[in-house]
TrEMBL record:
Keywords: ATP-binding, Cell membrane, Kinase, Membrane, Nucleotide-binding, Phosphoprotein, Transferase, Transmembrane, Transmembrane helix. PROSITE patterns: HAMP, HIS_KIN. It comes from Novosphingobium anseongense. InterPro entries: 2C_sensor_his_kinase (IPR050980), HAMP_dom (IPR003660), HATPase_C_sf (IPR036890), HATPase_dom (IPR003594), His_kinase_dom (IPR005467), HisK_dim/P_dom (IPR003661), HisK_dim/P_sf (IPR036097), Sig_transdc_His_kin-like_C (IPR004358). Residues 59-95 are annotated as: Disordered. SMART domains: HATPase_c, HisKA. This is histidine kinase. Signal peptide: none annotated. Its EC number is 2.7.13.3. It comes from the Bacteria.
Amino acid sequence: MIRRLLPRSLMGQMMLAVAVALLAAQTIGAVLAYRAGAERREAALLHSAAFRLLMTARDDDQDRREERRPRERDADARRERGPNGAPRRDGGGGFRLERRAAAPLQVGDKTDAEAARELRRILADQDFAAADVVVLRREIARDEITRRRIDRQQRMLAAQHEQSPTQVVLAAVQMPDRSGWVVARALVPPGERAIVMSLLLQTLFIYIVLVGAIALILRRITRPLAELTERLERFAETRSPEGQIAPQGPGDVRRLIVAHNAMEARIAALLDEKDVMLGAIGHDLKTPLAALRVRIESVEDDAERAKMAATIEDITRSLDDILSLARVGRPSDPLEKSEISALVASVVEEYEDMGEPVELLDTQRVVLPLRATWLRRGLRNLIDNALRYGQRARVSLVRETRQVVIWIEDDGPGIAEADLERMLEPFSRGDPSRNSSTGGAGLGLTLARAIAEQHGGALTLANRRGADGEVMGLVATLSLPLT
């Protein structure tokens, strides 16, 4: 099923390969960029939390070591409160540092051990030996302090068309003397969607530029190849050198077209030479045969004269078959729409008028573009073959989905399965004798097959078997495509 969906053309397969490779590269790049961005955000949050915790911890240490003067205490109090007397938020993310007696853990929280180790290292680099460190992420809906703060900021975020954060990072440090915990909060920036959209837009842009450029290059290559293929198909039908395509495309493709045109011209010249030679042979042979046919009339023995006349007729018939087989590949008459069932019926009537046991069975009316003269010749050869080896012939015509099928069956002994294909080759005969009743050059089936192929069809042979599997005759199937 998947193989049927894959493109069959060179351009389609190349475009699919480029698209898959580009998608894989962009996917790997997106994963790496996302991980790097997440690590940068995590590091920024930890450094911000560490800075705030260090500032608070050092202030607490200093307060414990010194007895402050009243003026200093009043200044500190003013710094802790804003102009309206409310508690002042610190400069990191808009959250106050929370002081607690215990770690800020709730049911369902999962601590980040790696982040905690990194925060401990940062604090240790600043000569702050925390007794314990806890880092965790919590949904904003589960953190009361953050939820109240976000509720107050929702109007501002909506006015700025910003995406609301959904998580908050809690970094808690237990003081070295284990006197309590200091908790810093920082909102996790909602940057994942922006990164994904950026990567998608980048991928789309690369696809448009890269795939577009490759499509133009492939089109320059595949267009002359497609025209060359069509030219080959026309030449196979007509064998005429007319209508050759001009060299175009890249250098390699141009050389291919030039070589093909030269090959076509050479083949056409050889075919012309063959036709001239066969015409000369046919003329040179038929003239003495006609003279010989007149001379044997002087033979007094009737039996001997009849044998000689039959031999001359056999030679003439074989010569006609050879010349017809040579010309069938290059027909001079055009295709004309014909009613094929009427054509088959007229051929059968010819044999009925001569008293031959030929029977016309079921037929259907079908109009096809045909070379009627050639098709008549092919049908006669098949019927003659059935009469020669099977004593009788039955002809039927059926229209199928995509083709018209003509069956000619006989009641003869059939052909060995291994010899069915060989019988369609030139000069192959099932009966080794060459007498007048079963003689011939073995070109009848070959010519019939060539005529079928000339019309885009095919000729096949098969043994007709009874219910018990016994061979009851031969069936020749001539199929022609519906166009």
